[in-house]
Amino acid sequence: xxxxxxxxxxxxxxxxxTQEALEAIDRVEKTLRYALDAGxxxxxxxxxxxxxxxxxxxNLPQFQxxxxxxxxxxxxxxxxxxxxxxxxxxxxxxxxTEAKSRFxxxxxxxxxxxxxxxxxxxxxxxxxxxxxxxWEARRQEFLGKQQRHADQVDERSKEYLATKPGAxxxxxxxxxxxxxxxxxxxxxxxx
Length: 191
Known about the structure:
By secondary structure, the chain is mainly alpha-helical. About 65% of the residues lie in helices and about 0% in strands. The protein is built from five helices and no strands.
């Protein structure tokens, strides 16, 4: 009696495993058909590079401001004449000459600083334009490669729609690569 029950249990287990195996075989046989019908596993747009150019655009340089030009009529350059200076002409002339000399010294210093800053800002601007040009060339090269690749993908898609054998095989390979398989199923295939 026990033996009969063991035999019956084993037959039941064998039948279940056989059914599971048959279902697994059926799923594998239908993998490509299912994947092709599903249509979501692969589409040609997936092969295109839609990324943005990653390298950041060069930053504008920090240009230095040119200081304000000294003006001879500023308070700083006016001679301060007292009562005695107004009476004694040589004192008055000395203070006027001193004020003019102070202005000339400041103006000459400003002119030198103005020229130095202008030269520095010009160099910074030229360096920036050079860096920007190189960056733009690299960006255009990236975008060109990206567009050429997209054009190739579009061409391959048209070939697939025209049922050209090479494109159909390639499409099926992409679909099979994107398909899910049972764990025990080999992941390598040949078309």
